[in-house]
């Protein structure tokens, strides 16, 4: 387990770098739409005037009333993740919190791999397990939004690709360098036998 804890550090750093590439390099703009300054100011003023606290709003909410159910059917509709306060675009606290989350996720990936390392001894098989689980988890987390809620596909496909890439990178780092292999175990056992015999 100590090896996995150590391995979670470079795995988390890899996730952090991939996150930076996908979400702080400008690449993220290919999957989202932007408004010009006047439109952004008008929407911001409307949000401040009509939303009264940080939260996620479904507008109109078909569960809210029969009138909103009709409005929802006619459209337009929106799901708004709203924060009533501003914060820096590059918030150092959020970056540190994100890096800590990456470490915890990498540690969980390592813990899962420890559970199968004896039955899946070779790196190729471990890599396949990592990739399949990462793609399945990312698909479940993101692709349901456009299916169930009719949100836009480009944004959620982008999130799916970004998260799958980060999870795969973390898993491959741990699987390749921080799990015992049968050869290592055999060598360690042989060394112990030699030492005991001497």
From TrEMBL:
Annotated transmembrane regions: 7-27, 92-115, 127-144, 156-179
Keywords attached to this Swiss-Prot or TrEMBL record, sorted alphabetically, are:
Membrane, Transmembrane, Transmembrane helix
Q: What is this protein called?
A: Uncharacterized protein
């Amino acid at each position: 387990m100590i090896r996995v804890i150590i391995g979670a550090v470079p795995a988390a750093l890899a996730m952090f770098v991939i996150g930076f590439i996908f979400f702080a390099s400008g690449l993220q703009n290919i999957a989202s739409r932007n408004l010009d300054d006047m439109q952004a100011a008008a929407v911001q003023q409307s949000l401040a005037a009509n939303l009264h606290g940080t939260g996620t709003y479904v507008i109109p909410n078909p569960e809210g009333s029969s009138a909103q159910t009709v409005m929802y059917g006619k459209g337009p509709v929106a799901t708004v993740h709203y924060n009533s306060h501003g914060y820096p675009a590059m918030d150092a606290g959020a970056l540190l919190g994100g890096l800590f989350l990456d470490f915890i996720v990498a540690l969980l990936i390592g813990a899962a791999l420890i559970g199968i390392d004896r039955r899946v001894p070779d790196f190729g098989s471990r890599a396949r397990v990592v990739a399949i689980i990462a793609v399945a988890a990312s698909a479940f987390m993101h692709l349901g939004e456009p299916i169930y809620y009719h949100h836009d596909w480009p944004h959620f496909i982008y999130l799916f690709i970004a998260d799958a890439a980060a999870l795969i990178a973390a898993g491959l780092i741990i699987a390749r360098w921080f799990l015992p292999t049968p050869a290592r175990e055999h060598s360690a056992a042989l060394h112990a036998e030699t030492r005991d015999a001497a």
